[in-house]
Amino acid sequence: MTADVQPSGSIRRRLTLQLLFSAALLAGLLFAVVQNFAREVAEESQDSVLLASVTSILDAVTVQEGEIVADIPYSALSMLGNVSDDRVFYRILANGEMLTGYADLPDMGLSEGEIGSVAATGTYAGESVRMVSASRRIALEGGPVEVVVSVAQTRSGHMRRIRQISRDSLVLGIGFFAIAALFAVLAAQSTVRPLNVLTGSVSRRGPQDLRPVTGSVPSEMVPLVRSLNRFIARLKITLSRSEDFIAEAAHRVRTPLATVRAQAEVALQRVEKPENRQSLKDMIRAIDESSRAAGQLLDHAMITFRSDQLEHREIDLRELVMETVERLRPVAGLKDIVVTVTSPDRLSIPGDAILVQSAIGNVIDNAIKYSPAESDIEVELEAGSERAVVRVLDEGPGFGDEDLHNATRRFARGRNSEGTVGSGLGLTIAEDVARAHGGGLGLRNRTGEKGACVSLVLASR
Amino acid sequence: MRLVGLGIALSVVVTAAAQAFEIEEQRLFPSPDGTDGAVLKVISTTDTEIFTPLASAFQAQAPGVAVDYSVVSSAELDRALRVEGAAFDIALSSAMDLQTKLANDGLVRTHRSADTERLPDWANWRDQVFAFTQEPATIVVSPSAFDGLEVPRTRQALISLLRSHSERFQGRIGTYDVRESGLGYLFATQDSRNSEIYWRLTEVFGRMGAELYCCSSQMIQDVAEGHIAVAYNVLGSYARARQALGDPIVVVEPQDFTTVMLRTAVIPTSAESPALAGSFVDFLIAANWEWLEQGDGTPFAPILASGEGGDPGARRPIRIGPGLLVFLDPLKRKRFLSEWQDAILQR
Ligand SMILES: Nc1ncnc2c1ncn2[C@@H]1O[C@H](COP(=O)(O)OP(=O)(O)OP(=O)(O)O)[C@@H](O)[C@H]1O
Ligand SMILES: [Mg+2]
């Protein structure tokens, strides 16, 4: 009956994935930014040491006795050794002429005539180097001389620092991602929690609970809950219409059949010819069959719909059984069958009296129908803490072996049913009612004695 | 000649025709097991006699290796590797500055091992320059010349003493000719860096008509023989070795500060057996530890030894690093030497 719903992904998974994706994006960004920043800082720190070195050398370039002298301070180069074990190169140019240092150090950036300092990265002696150059003009007899001092340092220490920083920022990024991922999972979970709560409250309901869903839900879910409630209301209306229709149908079929049967009885009184009497008797029997079938069918339908909207009223089971037995006593009397009831003083259960009575009626009716004349039928009521049992014991032939399994199927009649009027719905009705009342129907044959034992089990609370 | 005065066995003075650098002495230590397999070509500034026990110890450990040992001056060593590109597997030198410059200029190989890891930071530069000894610059005095005087323990004390007894010490002071000796230049420049007192001392030396020497061994010998009374900036390792042999000298580590030279090893890029050279470096380092642990008479002052008799707090090991390039700068050198000459040659 329920169409299988194909899930198209999961909100929680989608939400988690989206959050994880953005967390990964942010973590990546964080990693990139921190690394970049650190790289710049590291580069700047190398540049500033190089610049300090260049400046101190530049300051030591002087003119003495008409000659340019460069008295490189010890610290100018040793300070570079404090930072890392990198190789150091330097060069002093005066008006483009080599004064001292590494002659083949490439020009990186500083163009002639430029005053100030410039930093550049290049390759020298087979390694990547960072070089800072600065220039100064000093006065010589022949005119001003432009002195350019360059100091270069290989970058392996610098690279090592950057690698360290990369590792650190990677750890930072991963840590950030891990924390964000944790929060993403938690957030996704808390987002779908109201949905789960709603699902739980709807699916925990009994099949006949058609009350509207109340309780507070997040605003996004209000439209869903509203349409759910509207849908429930429509269903309720449709169900009560169907019930009305069934009651109407039962009435409309039974009444004319009763009329036809009465007419046939009257006709039977008048007819004398044996063959005519026989066909009238056959007719009456067929009418009985139809009437019984219609009655049982409609009862069954009624039960199906009533149990969909089961009303749990407190019913006195003892009273109900007594009443049913009284109602059937005339039928039993025709076969000289004695029906006895044993019961505790009080036994009440929650349920629908009409349905329970119909179930008990069908079971006792079977006992009468399938028992030989002048036999006894015992109806026992038993009250347990959880359930109540109505047990009907007869002295008839009992169920055939196959019938024990099949008897509750719709329209299933046993071998012993030949010559009796019936539709095969009695036990189906009884079982449906028992199930709707939280119980079941037990069929067995009495042990040691002839006869069937049918137990109708109902939840007692 | 840089000899310690021990007998010279099997050594030759060679000037190979193909080589434009001058080898003072070359000696082959054949492999102990007689195989002519691997040869470790060593170029060094250390006298053969001092190296010999080291070679034997190494060969005891690697019996299949012959050691070809060439002694050169530190300047020639630099020229051999820098200009000639001569094929040596390992270069041992007291000229830390030149060794550092070789490394800085990319002429040496990197070597990393469990042993190099054990070296303290200041004894290993770039895994290329490995210090394996610590050798203080000392003042060597002749006790007989100081008869009745207290042996000075600081430079200031030395200056005062020389000033107050100028006649006694006139012409009886020796120190390196820094123009000729690379080690002398290194000691002098580091002294000048450490304290202004160096220049005052040099001036006093100049006034006293100091004798100028090429090498520590010569200075020690002259002190021992009584030709001079004081030798300044003498390699403590050599002096102590001579003292141990009974020479009448007193070795003083100045208490104001003692410049400490680190003898270093580098593996040139031209090395033909760099792996063997690496194991020799490891041997030098490990041997050092052994000497240190045994504490017995050692050919070299171990890298971690705190020195005998010296004040550890006064020791100033020369730092291996780019700073050493400064005094190698020709302009800087020219300037330093002219100042030095002004101070010492004022006769
Ligand atoms: N007490 C009983 N003793 C023996 N057989 C029984 C008994 N009750 C039911 N049966 C068997 O089970 C079959 C099914 O019973 P059920 O009440 O469902 O149908 P029915 O009695 O044939 O028809 P209906 O009750 O709808 O008029 C019967 O046909 C009969 O063979
Ligand atoms: Mg029946």
Automatic annotation (TrEMBL), chain A:
The keyword Transmembrane helix applies. The chain crosses the membrane at residues 15-34, 169-188. The keyword DNA-binding does not apply. It catalyses: ATP + protein L-histidine = ADP + protein N-phospho-L-histidine. This is histidine kinase. Residues 189-240 form the HAMP domain. Keywords: Kinase, Membrane, Phosphoprotein, Transferase, Transmembrane, Transmembrane helix, Two-component regulatory system. Gene3D superfamilies: 1.10.287.130, Histidine kinase-like ATPase, C-terminal domain (3.30.565.10). It comes from Aliiruegeria haliotis. One of its GO terms (cellular component) is plasma membrane. InterPro entries: 2CSK_N (IPR013727), HAMP_dom (IPR003660), HATPase_C_sf (IPR036890), HATPase_dom (IPR003594), His_kinase_dom (IPR005467), HisK_dim/P_dom (IPR003661), HisK_dim/P_sf (IPR036097), Sig_transdc_His_kin-like_C (IPR004358). PANTHER family: SENSOR HISTIDINE KINASE YKOH, SENSOR PROTEIN QSEC. CDD domains: HATPase (cd00075), HisKA (cd00082). Its main location: membrane. It comes from the Bacteria. Its EC number is 2.7.13.3. It is found in: Membrane. GO terms for molecular function: phosphorelay sensor kinase activity. Residues 248-461 form the Histidine kinase domain.
From TrEMBL, chain B:
The lineage of its organism: Bacteria, Pseudomonadati, Pseudomonadota, Alphaproteobacteria, Rhodobacterales. It comes from Aliiruegeria haliotis. GO terms for cellular component: outer membrane-bounded periplasmic space. Keywords: Signal. This is Iron(III) transport system substrate-binding protein. Gene3D superfamilies: Periplasmic binding protein-like II. It comes from the Bacteria. Residues 1-20 form the signal peptide.
